[in-house]
Amino acid sequence: MGCFNARVTDYDVLRVFCGPRGAYGNELGVVRDGSAIPERGDRQAFAAKLGFSETVFVDDPERGVIDIYTPTLRLPFAGHPCVGAAWLLDVPELVTPAGVVQARLDGEFSWIEARPEWAPPRTLRQYATAAEVDALDVPPPGEWIYAWAWEDVAAGRIRARGFPGRDDGIDEDEATGAAALLLTARLGRALNIRQGAGSQILTAPQPEGWVEVGGRVVLER
Length: 221
Known about the structure:
This protein is of the alpha+beta class. It has two domains: 12-108, Roll (Diaminopimelate Epimerase, Chain A, domain 1), CATH 3.10.310.10; 118-214, Diaminopimelate Epimerase, Chain A, domain 1 (Roll), CATH 3.10.310. The protein has four helices and 14 strands. Strands 1, 2, 3, 4, 5, 6, 7, 8, 9, 10, 11, 12, 13 and 14 form a 14-stranded mixed beta sheet that branches. α3 links the parallel β9 and β10. The protein starts with 11 loop residues before the first strand and ends with a strand.
């Protein structure tokens, strides 16, 4: 394992999939200079130290090459890290281990286009009403559960909560782009998802099995 000083490693904190007034969203750590922490073991340790649901290391800012970690594992692809990194780097695409992610900015929304098969496994569990989703307790560690219910079927509005099922202190994920991508692929239609305390995720199916996922991004610090 290499050596790095976590106290002096620079990183940005974004909130991704913010609500209409810029509140809420899922925090994301971004180390713009990935060469400061080149070793995978050190990156994993740094992601665990930061404690965000995901942390991104940028290995080539011009080409958009990124490396994504949760506090406990490395991910080939994840939704809110890609949306946040694309917004921060202002690049037309990101290069992830899963594949090339197209990216674009459209007004206040940052969008990525990805494939459902890139997303980590999620159990999509439908409930009858949004109130049932609101009332759920955090389940014990185990499977990654995306609990959802229709708020307005005609308008494509959904209420959702994400429970990672990990034993790393993250009981609930405030906004989960990968799960939204999987749900969009299953339902085959554009969605407007209200997740967590007040985050907003927009999605839209695209030709040949691709799915767009978009949301607002705010630079926290």
